[in-house]
Amino acid sequence: MKNDISTIEDIKLLVNTFYSKVNEDELLSKVFNEQVGVDWEKHLPKMYNFWSTILLGTMSYEGQPFPHHMKLGINEKHFERWQALFMQTVKDNFSGATADMAMERAKNIATIFQYKLGLKPTEI
């Protein structure tokens, strides 16, 4: 039986596993590594803080994630793939109310970002 997301270690597992998949993905890896040149040593701790704030209420994230996405030239296919990888990561590693909330929040974030970018939200 899988555990729910309840600790910072769970958040780190979620984020590290997810971004490992992103780095292996032909579509998303190009955006993160070639186009943006993400500094993973800086990005991953920000993502730990982001998701622990959303899921565990740690209030450790400071910032606004949307502006970083405005100039990326991403489209519905990128959001669809991002959501699919995220949902699969959660389902493969966790089960429970917080895991369900993680998937719902990810879907909501993607939908809001797509609206703000003038894209049609994807259905996952």
In short:
This protein has 124 residues and is mostly helical. It has one domain: Globins (Globin-like, Orthogonal Bundle), CATH 1.10.490. Helix content is 66%, strand content 0%.
What features would you describe in this structure?
The chain is built from five helices and no strands. It is mainly α and 124 residues long. It has helices at residues 8-24, 26-35, 40-56, 76-93, 97-116. The mean pLDDT is 92. It has one domain (8-116): Globin-like (Orthogonal Bundle). The two termini are 25 Å apart. Helix 1 (8-24) crosses helix 3.
- Which structural class should the secondary elements be placed in? mainly alpha
In CATH, what is the homologous superfamily? Globins
Residue-averaged pLDDT, rounded?
Answer: 92
Shape: globular
With helices defined by DSSP (H or I, 4 residues minimum), what is the helix count?
5
Task: Give the ordered list of helices and strands.
Answer: HHHHH
Q: Tell me the distance between the termini.
A: 25 Å
- Assembly type: single chain
Query: Hey, roughly how much beta strand do the residues contain?
Result: under 5%
Q: Over all CA atoms, what is the radius of gyration? A: 14 Å
Task: Tell me the number of structural domains.
Answer: 1
Topology-level CATH name: Globin-like
CATH architecture: Orthogonal Bundle
Describe this protein with a few key phrases:
124 residues; 5 helices
